[in-house]
Specification:
mainly alpha
Length: 140
Amino acid sequence: MKPLRALLLLSLLIARLHAAASDSEEERVAAARRYLDVAQMRKITDDTVNELAKTFPADQRDKFLEFMRDAVRPEVLEQTAMASMVKIFTAEELNALADFFGSPVGRSAMGKFGVYMADVMPVIQQEMFRALQQLPAEKQ
């Protein structure tokens, strides 16, 4: 029985080492690129800005949109997302995200993500600002 247990443990260890070895930085970068291709960050950014514009008075929306399209740099957001994903997620996780967001249901969800972000972002920002106002002076 002991040799069987040792063989089983050895095979589990080998499988775990193989999984870790197959998650190279190059594989994570490729998987993150695949995810970003599917996720379409530029579209999410555009959708978010368009939804935020709706919160402005009608006579100020075009000026806001023009400003945001010039000021927001989607390539910076994509570079930041890429670096963070490669650091945090495994290639397997990134490929699973790309698989989901590339599926019909995932594409549908992604199509709504800009609207979602525009809906929750003002509350997130307001809550963060409120919390920072309560920060004691010695911690600032």
